[in-house]
Amino acid sequence: MPGTSKRISNGSPPVPGPPVTALRRGRAVLTSEWIKMGSLRSLRATALTGLVFSVLLAFLVCTGFHSRWHSLGPETRAAFRPVDTSLGFLQLTPLLFGALGALVVTGEYGTGQIRGTFAATPQRPLVLAAKAVLLGAVGLALALITVGFAFLVGQGQLAGTAPHASLGSSGAAGALLGGALYLTLTALFGLFLGVVVRSTAVAVSTLFGLFLVLPVLVDNLPKGAAWRHTVPWLPSNLGYSLWHSPAPLLVRATPAGFALAGWVVLLAAGALASLRVRDA
Amino acid sequence: MSAHVTEPPRRPEHPQVRTRLRPRAGATRLGATARSEWIKLWSVRSAPAALAAAVLVVVVGGFVLGAGYRSGWASLSPGDRRSFDPTFTSLRGVQLAQLFVGSLGVLALTGEYATGLIRTTLAATPQRAQVLAVKALVLGLVVWALCTAASFAAFAIGQSQFTGPVPHASPGGPGVLRAVLGGGIFLTLVVLFGMALGALTRSTPLGLASLFGVLLVLPVAVQLLPGSVGERVDPYLPGEAGSQLWRVVPPSPHSLAPWTGAGLFALYVAVAAGAALVLVRRRDV
Predict the structure, then answer these.
(1) For a tag site, which of A15, A105, A122, A140 has the least CB within 10 Å?
(2) What is the pLDDT of residues A138-157, one digit of tens each?
(3) What ipTM does this complex have?
C-alpha cells in the first residue's frame, strides 16, 4: 500500500518535550510502579500480617520452650537449637510473602488496571522488571526486619532458662540472612507466578499447594533414589536448607540458594513468555 | 439466568386462587433457585476446572504414592512399616484436593460479590438464607458425588500398586470402607467450610487466607509449640479432626475417633455457616 511508510498526521501538533530515552522511560515506569505498590491497602495488610504473624509465632514458641524447659526430656533438650526454634515461623511466612508478590500483579489483572499499565508502557518486560526490582528491594528490607525482629524477640524469651543465641553466635547471622533471602525469593516467585496465572485465587492456592501441602505429602515417602533426586529440590525444602541447620538428605545452604533462584528465573521466563503471547 | 426464574407466572386476580397457589410457590422457588445455582456452577470456567483438578489429584495421588511406596518399601524403617496405613496412603491426594475444593467453595460466593452478580441473585430470590442453603446443597452434592467416586478410584488404584511384601487393604477390612467414604465426606465438608468463610469475608483473598489458614497453617504453627501443648491442641483443629475420617490407623494417641473428629469438623462448619446465614441477612450487598 502506498504511503504506509509515512507517518500519518491526524492534525495535532507533535507533543513538545524531551525525547523519550530508555533511561527516562525506566525511571518513569519505576515511579509509577512505586506509586501503585505504595497505595494498595491489600499489600500493606499482607506485609503487616507477615511481620506480626512471624514475631507472634516466634514469641509463642520461644515462650513455650522457656516455660517448659525443665519438664522437657533429655533428648529434646539435646536436640534443641535456639536459632532453628526461633525461626520456625519460616515454614509458614513464605506463604504470605508469596501472596504479597502475587497480589502486586494479580490485583491489577482483577481490576483491569493492567490494561492501563500496558497502554501507558507497551514495553511489557520493562514493566515486569520494574515490579521485580521494587518488590525485590522492598521484600528484602521487609524480610530482614521480620526475621531480625522475630529472632530478637524469640531469643529474648529463651534467655534465662533455655540455651539462647545472639546475632554474633555461630550460624545465627547466616540463618537470618538465609531466611531473609528465602522470603525475598518467594515474593518474586509469587510475582512471576501471578503473571502466569493472572488470578489471586489460583496463585494463592498454588502457593499453598507447592509450599505447604506437597512437602508434607511426599515427606513420608520411602527415601529411594527418586525421592533423593526430587524432593530436596522442592522450593520449600530449598528454603528450609537456607535457614535451618543442615538436615540429613537435604541440600546444603549455598547450592539451595542458587537452586531456589533458579526456580525464580524459570518462572520469570514463563512470565515473560506469557506477557509476550497473551492479550492483557 | 433463564427468564422464568425472574418472571413469575401470571396469576389470576382472584384472591382465593392466589392463596391456593401460595403453598406451591415455595416449592417452585426452591427448584428454580437450585436450577439457577446449577447453571451458575457450570457456566464459569473456574468451577469445572477446580472440580476436575480435585478429582485428578486424588486419583493420580493414589497411583503416585502407591508406586512410591512399592518401589521404596525395602528402604523403609521397621517403625515406618509398622505404622504404614495402606488405605490412608492411597487416599492422600485428598490433602491436595482440599485446596481445589476449598477454593471452589470460597469462590462460589466471593466470585459473585466481585462481579456484582450477587445483587442480581438476591434480587431474583430475596430469601437470602434460602439462596445460600440451596447453593450449599447443590455444591455439596456435586463435590460429594465426584470426590466419593475419586476416592474409590484412588483406593482401587493405590491398592493395586501394593503387591508383594507391601501390605494392602481390602474394602471389607475394619474401618476401610468408612475411610474411603470419608474422603468424599471430608472434601464435602471442606467445600461447605469454604463457602461459609467466603460468605463471611465477601473477598476472595481474605476467604482463601482464612480457609487455608485454619486448615493448613494452624496445624503447622501448633506443632511448633514445645512438648505436649501442640500434641494436645492439634487433634481439635478443624483439619486434623476432620481428616481422622479417612484414616484407618490414627496418627497419634491423642487423635480423636473417626466420627468424633468428623463431627467436630462438621460443628466448626456449622458454626461458620450459621454466622454466614445471620450476616448475609443483615448486610447490604
Answers:
(1) A15
(2) 999 999 999 999 999 999 99
(3) 0.81
